[in-house]
Design a protein that fits this description.
eight-stranded parallel beta sheet; five-stranded antiparallel beta sheet; binds 1-deoxynojirimycin; GH
Length: about 550
């Protein structure tokens, strides 16, 4: 496979609203990011993925875009953006933007036109339908943010489709003119000098013609519309067309956020010969702790399932496509609270999870705060939450009679605001994030978990991430080596090998809170990295892993 710069890159995701506030309005901003570029350089990352910074009324914190070619006022100006891009490039850091084109804001100029009349030239940029004769909605799909996926617009007495909030109407990708406008917009950003795109729910843009009703799962209020828009009929055609018309002409990184993409789909999306995208974000490992009732139906974490899932992706895409690797993003709870242990073994388990992910094959993504082991937050009242997904779900389910205490419990475990509390820079008020009042409360554990402390402690999670990033830059084995699962049936251990040319690395990760003995068959004299300061007890036959221990051995053959 031809080598690409993004093969051995590590990406760091910034959620600008929560990163660093430079002007005291309680909202992070672009100048705040510029102030922290040296911090990111110290960590050693290669690429920043910026969550949306475009002009937006912030119904969904920037994922509802009013103007694709302007910067959100709260974040700064286009001049600030250009300065950020220059200053990052000066430090050898690339910048990838978020591309949100499944939908726009309802305040976008296209939608303002579209809703005016049925014969407006922009009418067909969105998906409009009238009610059925009996007055029922155009179809039975539910919105991903609760309620129906259709909203009535009184001006023309028709409904528009919104897979997300009412303020995020879906763009009509069947419309050739809309597609061309999007490609031109992408090209203008690339010409500005950016280094690629993370493409928001990009595998939802092609809907089944006729928008048929979907099956309604038992007990559900709405049909599972995903049957008719996930990996829809024209998705590969659209991506190929977009690639040809825009980013395919530049040496940039593209990663498609793709809920519901299987390994078979991912091979089609990422096979370099097909010229669609470089890699996708799968959701399969993020769904392992959800039950049949969906995301809020919280299930215990099952390590065996995680092992099987990662192994499936590692093996299936080897030499055929490319994986992206992530534990966290702005939509997911904090991994140390989710799959690790965020009290006694917070440091050990955060480092162990980092080891597990960063030695896999693919491009790793670190989400802001992960590198200092930030944890989930548990606000006591629903009023303290800002996220539209949480608020809509709360309203719908309390109206149906669900127990508020139970809902709050699932929000504590799964809510997106877990990831969105401001970055804890130091032990001063509001964690040093702002001199004003933060838009979302800072996690109260900021006096103990913060960047300043991490930078002062040579054994911190931060410096461990730094080592893992450096290892990837030094070793082709991590980037290109073959993966194999070992100790498949060990209930609390995830162990695997990576093999390249004449070397094999053995990676052992313990999820147990007690010592665990595993058999070994290889030489254990060459230790690459581990999360305890001293070596574990190992003989020719067995290795004793301490709680949440991660250890990596290298052998030559
Ligand atoms: C996925 C984004 O990551 C999420 O934050 C957003 O709410 C939806 N797409 C809609 O844009």
């Amino acid at each position: 496979m031809e080598r690409k710069w993004w093969h051995d890159s590590v990406v760091y995701q910034i959620y600008p609203r929560s990163f660093n506030d430079s002007n005291g309005d309680g909202i992070g901003d672009l100048v705040g990011i510029i102030e922290k570029l040296d911090y990111l350089k110290e960590l050693g990352i290669d690429v920043i993925w910026l969550s949306p910074v475009y002009d937006s009324p912030n119904d969904d914190n920037g994922y509802d875009i009013r103007d694709y070619e302007a910067i959100m006022d709260e974040f700064g100006t286009m001049a600030d953006f250009d300065r950020l891009l220059d200053q990052a490039h000066e430090r050898g850091i690339k910048i990838v933007m978020d591309l949100v084109v499944n939908h726009s804001s309802d305040e976008h100029a296209w939608f303002a036109e579209s809703r005016k009349s049925k014969d407006n030239p922009y009418r067909d940029y969105y998906i409009w339908r009238s009610a059925h004769e009996d007055g029922t909605l155009p179809n039975n799909w539910g919105s991903i943010f609760s309620g129906p996926a259709w909203e009535l617009d009184e001006a023309t007495n028709e409904y528009y489709l919104h897979l997300f909030s009412k303020k995020q109407p879906d763009l009509n990708w069947e419309n050739e003119k809309l597609r061309q406008e999007v490609y031109q917009m992408i090209t203008r950003w690339l010409d500005r000098g950016i280094d690629g795109f993370r493409m928001d729910v990009i595998n939802l843009i092609s809907k089944t013609p006729g928008l048929p009703d979907a099956t309604v799962p038992p007990g559900a209020l709405y049909g599972e519309g995903g049957q008719h828009y996930i990996n829809g009929p024209r998705i590969h055609e659209f991506l190929k067309e977009m690639n040809d018309a825009s980013f395919g002409n530049y040496d940039v990184l593209t990663v498609g956020e793709m809920p519901g993409a299987t390994t078979e789909d991912a091979i089609l999306y990422t096979d370099p010969a097909r010229k669609e995208v470089n890699m996708v974000f799968t959701f399969e490992h993020m769904d392992l702790d959800s039950g049949p009732g969906g995301k809020w139906d919280v299930q215990p974490f099952d390590l065996q399932k995680l092992k099987q899932n990662f192994t499936k992706w590692q093996v299936a895409l080897h030499e055929k496509g490319w994986n992206s690797l992530y534990w966290n993003n702005h939509d997911q709870p904090r991994v140390v609270s989710r799959f690790g242990e965020d009290t006694t073994y917070r440091v050990e388990s955060a480092k162990m999870l980092a080891t597990l992910l960063h030695l896999l094959k693919g491009t790793p993504y670190i989400y802001q705060g992960e590198e200092i082991g930030m944890t989930n937050v548990a606000f006591e009242s629903i009023e303290e939450y800002e996220d539209i997904e949480i608020r809509n779900m709360w309203k719908e389910r309390t109206e149906q009679g669900a127990s508020p205490a139970e809902l709050l419990r699932s929000i504590h475990v799964k809510g997106r605001d877990n990831a969105r509390t401001p970055i804890q820079w130091d032990a001063t008020e509001h964690g040093g994030f702002t001199t004003g009042t933060p838009w979302l409360k800072v996690n109260p554990n900021y006096p103990t978990i913060n960047v300043e402390k991490a930078l002062q402690d040579p054994d911190s999670i931060f410096y461990y991430y730094k080592q893992l990033i450096a290892l990837r830059h030094q070793h082709d084995l991590i980037v290109y080596g073959e993966y194999a699962l070992i100790l498949e049936d060990a209930p609390h251990i995830y162990a695997y090998t990576r093999t390249y040319e004449n070397q094999t690395w053995y990676i052992y990760c313990s999820f147990a809170t007690e010592d665990t003995i595993v058999p070994v068959t290889h030489d254990s004299s060459d230790r690459v990295i581990g999360n305890y300061s001293d070596a574990p007890h190992v003989t020719d036959e067995q290795l004793t892993l301490r709680p949440y221990e991660a250890i990596v051995y290298r052998t030559h053959h």
